[in-house]
Structures are given as structure tokens and as C-alpha cells.
Amino acid sequence: MFDIKWIRENPQAFDAALARRGAEAASARLIGLDDARRAHIARLQEAQERRNAASKEIGKAKAMKDEAAAQALIDEVAKIKSMIQEGEDEERRLNEALDQALCVIPNLPLADVPDGADETGNVLHHVHGNKPQLPFINKPKEHFELGEALGTMDFATAAKLSGSRFVLLKGQLARLERALGQFMIDLHTTEHGYMEVSPPLLVSGTALYGTGQLPKFEEDLFRAGDSHYLIPTAEVPLTNMVADEILGEEALPLRVTALTHCFRSEAGSAGRDTRGMLRQHQFQKCELVSVTRPEDSAAELERMLGCAEAVLQKLGLHYRVMTLCTGDMGFGSQKTYDIEVWLPGQDTYREISSCSVCGDFQARRMNARFRPADAKGLRHVHTLNGSGVAVGRAMIAVMENYQNNDGTITVPEVLRPYMGGLERIG
To answer: Residues that bind L-serine, according to the entry (predicted)?
Structure first.
């Protein structure tokens, strides 16, 4: 969401930023909607002023016993009152028209975000570690080959229960998934200073509007009844904790984390990643959310990236970090880093975490503000979110990177306390 006053004052900069995202210029259309709204409000104010003046004149006419003039004024006031009621309805319509036009426009990229049309324009930020050497394996297996051979990753039964893009984990793999999630939430709460939250998995449309999923991306959501949706990510409830709030500056930065199930319809992904667990309708993710002062959000993004990287480092996984280009960023992001973990079975890197700074884009939609300690007035907070990390993809990475020639999987040392001391799966 944007400040229409800023757009009026900076139309060329606004359109240039949209062009970097591959979006059409919008300032003229938005200013036109705002002009119509402002003109109508001015007419409405004139009518209200005339009603007030006529109401005073009624008393004067009656005092002079000019009943004809008084009745004419009474009729005029009644007519103006009706016009004002209709005008207020029109004002609401014009406000909604402007809001609807604004709310589907993507966030503006920061100056240091690389330009590009799609993922081919992403830029390598840095690489951690080296690709694992598995000389004892002719061709590394993919996670679903390993899991199905172990009898603990069951897609057929899941399809019988729920259809495609679901999995049923059993035995040691079910425990590995639980261990990974517990390890992540413990790491972020005990070492990284995040407060653990257990949020609702059902949220209102208002909450999804606040973080930018609605109205533009409704097809990606699972609706539950008339007034709720299943969360696509814990970013939604965690960020909306500050919706309609005025925080004290001393409360910032606010850092919260949650380990939850997430639900996505995967609209538009037909034919992509149909084998295995890479793209599921239901999955677990450890989410990180920060709420900061505007001056601190750039540094907070780097900190959040480091927190997400720590998960992979402690798991001993090789990965790279990419700075997403303007054409590959999410709708609400000003700047995004993707962490891509190496998967030997696929012989490629795959995204396992995205860390984004949104500036005041979500805060304006949510009306989330803070009161500066040394200044008058209120300011919008800045919000950030990141995966710390996706549990299912972390399990895939562990399985493929720690696979053994006999089809078993070595348990990374950091996970063994969560696995009852188990050193090998299978």
C-alpha cells in the first residue's frame, strides 16, 4: 500500500520504480482517482457549510416572523441533508476505488536490488561450503527414492486420503521431520533472540489483506468456510500481531518465530515438482518475523538472513545465497535474499528460505505504527519476514546429502539429541 500524497509529489519516481518490476505506469490513473475523490469531498464540504448556514438563517427568519422564508430554508436544509447522505455514499465509493487500485500494486524495489525480468536475473550473493563428495554412490538418489525404499515415505496412501501433493511420513522419517522443526525453533529462540508464538492456523481475510496475499493472490489460498482461510505461511498471523497497534519505540525491534503447518493451493504449478515433497499443499515451516524502526530494517534483513543460514550451517549443508532481481521478488517485498540448498539427488540448488524486507508496505495495509521517543507524531513500522527454514525441504536436503550406499541416511550430529541418540535411519 502506498501514500497517495507521496505518489502525487513523486509520480515519475513511482512509475520508474514500477517499470523496474515490469509493471505498467500507474501514477496518472491513481492521481486521477484521487482528483475525483478530492473534488467530491470539496463539494460535500461546501454543501455541509451551506446546510449549517441555512440552519442558522431559519432561526433568524422565524424571529422576524417570516414564515415563508423559514419554510423555504427548512426545505433547502432537508434537500441538502439528502444530498449529503448520497454524497457520503459516493465518497465511500471513491475511497474504495482508490484503495482497490492501490492495493494490487507491488511494492517498490530498493535501489540496490538488481534489475531483471525473472529468476535468470538473480545475482549470486555468496556461497557457503562445498558440494558434498559421495564417491561411494554412482548416482545419488532423490529423497523420494530413499524414503520409499525405506518404507517410511508413503505417497500412495496420502493420495488415497487427500489426493496429489500430500505425503504420509512414518517411523523414523516422521521423527526426523519433528526433530528438524524442534531444532529450528530451539535455535531461533535460545540463540537468536526470537520469541516463540503458537498462532492460529485459520485467519481472516483482513489479516491476509494486511500482509498482501489478498486480494491479488486468493487463488493460492485454501478457504475454510465463509470467513476464514488456512494460513499459507505463519508470516500472516505473526505480522498481523501489530495490526492497528501503536507501539512504543522501546518495543522495537519485535522478533517473533513460529513453527506451523502451512497450506498452499500451488495454483499455476501444474506439472512442476510432481514427484516427492518439494511442492506440497501442506508442509511445515519455521517462520521468522521482525518489526523494526525504518532506520533499522536494512540491517535487520542481514541479521535475519544470518539466522536462517545458521540452520543450514549447523546441519552441515552446502548452499548459496541469491539476491533476487526486481522481476522475481514477491509482491510485498522491497528486497529479498533466497537461500538455495544443494540437493545431490537432483544435482541442483533449490530454494529453502526467502528473507525479505517489506518497508512500510504491510504496515500501511495493517495500520501498524509506533511512537518515536524523541519526536511528535506517529510513524509506520517496517516489517520483515523469512523462513528459518522450510522443514520439508530441510528434510529433503538432509536425506540426499547424508545418504549412504546401502540406502540408509546418517543423522546429522545436531539432530541426534532430538532423535533419541539415533545415528542412522534405515
So the answer is: 233-235, 287, 387
354 is catalytic: yes
Residue 29 annotated as catalytic: no
pLDDT score at 52? 85
393 in active site? yes
CA distances from 171 to 43, 363, 380, 423 (A): 71, 43, 48, 15
Query: Which is catalytic among the residues 165, 300, 393, 400?
Result: 393
Contact 261, 282 (CB under 8 A): yes
What is the C-alpha separation between 117 and 266, in angstroms, rounded?
Answer: 22
Q: Can 279 be counted among the known catalytic residues?
A: yes
**CA 129 to each of CA 132, 164, 229, 334: distance values in angstroms, whole numbers, following the listed order:** 9, 35, 40, 28
Q: Is 353 annotated as a binding residue?
A: yes
What does pLDDT average to in each consecutive run of 10 residues of the chain (426 residues)?
94 97 96 96 90 84 82 84 88 94 96 97 97 83 96 97 96 98 98 98 98 95 95 98 98 98 85 85 98 98 98 98 97 98 96 98 98 92 98 98 95 98 96
Confirm or deny that 55 is annotated as ligand binding: no
Residues 165, 175, 255, 264: which is the catalytic one? 264
Q: What is the pLDDT of residue 361?
A: 97
Q: CA-based Rg of the chain, rounded to a whole angstrom?
A: 28
Active-site entry in 8, 279, 371, 379: 279
